[in-house]
Amino acid sequence: MKVLVTGGLGYIGSHTCVELLQNNYEVVVIDNLSNSEVSVITRIETITHKKIIFYNGDLSNKSDIQQVFQQNEIDAVLHFAASKSVNESLKKPLKYYKNNISNMINLLEAMMEFNAKKFIFSSSAAVYGSTAQQPISELATTKAMNPYGETKVIGEDLLNDLYASDSEWSIVVLRYFNPIGAHESGLIGEHPNGTPNNLMPLITQVASKKRSLLYVFGNDYNTIDGTGVRDYIHVVDLAKGHVSAVQKLFSTHGLHTYNLGTGEGYSVLEIINTFEKVNNVNIHYEIVDRRAGDPAVCFANPAKAKEELDWSAERTLEDMCRDSWRWEKNLENRILTNKN
Ligand code: NAD
Ligand code: UFG
């Protein structure tokens, strides 16, 4: 089986390529390197001892996509390529609608043309808005809180309409909760461009003294210690969820939507304390005001993925903290020694 992974050199895509290769899929990647490095290919190949076929291409360019389908018989597509910063989407909404919607349409059109109608979509818990009942099931109403989340809601709507128009499509929508951690080899992980917005890359940068302080956004929520609660999931568990989803694509038709989360929520202070304990480092932090738009609590009901995909997250919060720190230290080393 040959699968196309768009955005396959990015954070979640690269870990998924590893799991796909280890499950004997042939992997073709298209990535424009806007948020990744070409050296990730060698690192994926070092982990797996297998090769990927790489196209340095952009989904805004229809001929880049055509070339991939002309040169490869693609059985299924896993679509990770997108812009993903909530903050940036508030400042540059058109960039988000273009990359996450228009470019996805280019991809779907090429798939129709080449009669490749199996598709996995990277969606997000961002589609649930702030009023969903916890734990959140897939049946909760969707209501995005920002342009980024809106692009995921529209992406999902678009796929629903596509499937309604042509039942030959087989589509799996995966709503990720909060992916953190890195591959245990220390060779691949998250490599944020510029200043990160998310909690774990900020924690690792404070631990490595790249920044002096972590701001904890609010300690007056109605939670265990007043700080925000999220469902953090190890990126390797998330990647394995995609292998289960690919298997689902080949065994049924239809459009299926799954939460990929652990089902457990941890507060910001619990994350900081666990990180400090397992890695024996100190995280200097200060409590500041709440961040606008943050819900107090957000965690998944992952029962449907367990039931229908036979998948559940296995790695602990300790694993996530240990692997995030190992990756950060290796990243630091690579920068210092100037080698990829
Ligand atoms: P990432 O930025 O690390 O990876 C995306 C990859 O796509 C990058 O390698 C980038 O270079 C590439 N890309 C972007 N636009 C492209 C284009 N037009 N053509 C070709 N390549 C392009 O992001 P990630 O964290 O791996 O996220 C992957 C997907 O998961 C995204 O769709 C994101 O919205 C979704 N998601 C991520 C999170 C998260 O917290 N990381 C949470 C929920 C959903
Ligand atoms: N937080 C801080 N300080 C920081 C950064 C975050 O206290 O400097 C807190 C937040 O207030 C929140 C928790 O840490 O309580 C997690 O925040 P993240 O920014 O890491 O993650 P979010 O839950 O806000 O958002 C993430 C992704 C979105 C995605 C959403 C749901 O960034 O893209 O999960 O999947 F939509």
Q: Count every helix, treating DSSP H or I runs of 4 or more residues as helices.
A: 11
Largest sheet report: 7 strands, parallel
In whole angstroms, the N-to-C terminal distance is 30 Å
Widest sheet: strand ordering = 3-2-1-4-5-6-11
Bin the strand percentage: 15-25%
How is the CATH topology named?
Rossmann fold
In the predicted model, the low-confidence regions spanning at least 5 consecutive residues are none
**Cα-atom radius of gyration:** 19 Å
Shape: globular
Provide the domain count.
1
Bound molecules: nicotinamide-adenine-dinucleotide, uridine-5'-diphosphate-4-deoxy-4-fluoro-alpha-D-galactose
Name the CATH superfamily assignment.
Answer: NAD(P)-binding Rossmann-like Domain
| Helix/strand/pairing category | alpha/beta
Layout of SSEs?
Layout: E1 2-6, H1 11-22, E2 26-31, H2 39-48, E3 53-56, H3 62-71, E4 76-79, H4 86-91, H5 93-113, E5 118-124, H6 147-165, E6 170-176, E7 178-180, H7 199-207, E8 214-217, E9 229-230, E10 232-234, H8 235-251, E11 254-260, E12 266-267, H9 268-279, E13 285-288, E14 297-298, H10 303-309, H11 317-337
Parallel strand pairs: 1-2, 1-4, 2-3, 4-5, 5-6, 6-11, 7-10, 8-13, 9-14
Antiparallel strand pairs: 9-12
Helix pairs in contact: 1-2, 1-8, 3-5, 5-6, 7-11, 9-11
The chain binds nicotinamide-adenine-dinucleotide (NAD) and uridine-5'-diphosphate-4-deoxy-4-fluoro-alpha-D-galactose.
